[in-house]
Structure formats: C-alpha cells, structure tokens
Amino acid sequence: MNVKILMIGDVVRSPGVGYLAKGGRLRETVKKTGARLTVVNGENAADGNGITPDAADALFFAGADVVTGGNHTLLRAEIFGALDDDRRLLRPANLPGDTPGMGYGIFDAGGVFVLVANLLGQIFMDPVNSPFDTLSRILERERGNFDIAVVDFHAEATSEKGAFARYFDGKVSVVAGTHTHVATADCAVLPGGTGFITDLGMTGSRAGILGVRTDCVIKKLVNRLPSRFEGAVGNEAASGALFEIDPASGRCVSAQSIIF
Ligand SMILES: [Fe+2]
Fold first, then answer.
1. Span from the CA of 125 to the centroid of ligand 1 (angstroms)
2. Is residue 24, in this structure, part of any structural domain at all?
3. Is residue 161 part of a domain?
4. Mean pLDDT, range 178-200, rounded to an integer
C-alpha cells in the first residue's frame, strides 16, 4: 500500500502556527489527504524569528509529526535543549561544528520507516558543509534502517534546489525545497522517481511580504534605514505538497501542491 507524506512550508510566527491549529485545520487536512506522516518546516514559527520550545510544541500539538529547520533554527538558545531531547525536532544536518540536535531521524509511519533529513543550501546562504556529501553519508550510514527517505532542502537558489533534487533522483523519494516563502508551480515526479518541488511556500499571513509587515520591509528597502521586522497578520493560508510513495520501490508515484 502506498504511503502519503504531507510536507508543509515555512510556518511564520504565531499567525502561521495559529492557522494550522485553529479548529484542527492541519489534523483535518491530514485526515482528508490520508497522509501517514506530516513534516512541517518550523524554523520561523516563533514570534521574532527562530523557533522556541513553545512554538515547536504548538506545531506538534497542531498535528506535525516532524518539525524541520533551516538557517534560523539556532537563533534562539532556548531551543537547544529541545533539539537534543526531542527526536521529532530537526536542525539542518550540514551545519558546521558541534551543534545541538540531529539533522535527520527515522520515523515509523504505520509500519513504513521514513528517514526525514533536513539540509541547508550553500548559495546565497551562510557557509555550511556540502549538502550533497552530507546527505550521501547519511543515506549510506542508515542503509537498511529505513524504507523511504524524504528531504527538506532549505535553500535560496532555485538552481541549487533543482541540482540537488536531480543528483538524488532515484536515491530518495522526496526533495522538497523550503526557505523562500514563495510556493513554486513545479511540483512533479522526476524521471528517477523522486518527488520534487523547488519551494513548498509559506504558512502564515499573506497580508505582508513573506510574513513580515509591508511597512517594515518598505522602510528598509526604500530608505536603507534600520527597521525592526514585525510579523504580518491577516489573510493566512497554509502551503505545501502531498507526495504518494510506493514503499516497496521507494518511487514517488504522485506529487501535488496543496494550499489550504
Ligand atoms: Fe530560512
């Protein structure tokens, strides 16, 4: 029996978290789609950026099975303990140095063991270890311990995301891009059987710019003045993609964007 995996793009601040939780909206979507594992990018789920233990708990309570991260995961020191203690909470696997937490985990999705990995891109981002080498090493190390692998690739450049997905085409079941907060219209299955979308998009307020209040961004860009970024509120939506995978072969058989 095929397994469906729901992946949700960057949840921005309390409007994004609240939107998923309100009225059991995310759990309702999980039920409706038949997803057996729900992976949510939560690197900016806390107000003021980053992620806090409260924000992570709120995402798990809303229905996330795994919460992935990105370049802002380690912004708030209060999350370090949770990263060490809670296997469901991931930070990027290719951060340099000795950092708290894990960059991947293996999760039981109704008898199918799913390796979920989180990696950062290198283009227009702070320096990190090669995501290509890091993921290759993880897949090699865990060979035989999982049925399928899905990846949240948190990166800025569309070219890097496309290259990463094609490099691992046929080696992992899903590569879902995150970070840009803008959903792309290219959700598809690559020739080798990997489901791919360049960016899942954002879960949060559409009233501002990428989840930030419009006036704060304009002030910074027009006048080059320091501007404290406040979160936008209103017109919320959730954005992601649903991937259906044959666990026997690891091939993704369908991939579709989802907005709710
Ligand atoms: Fe990011």
1. 9
2. yes
3. yes
4. 98
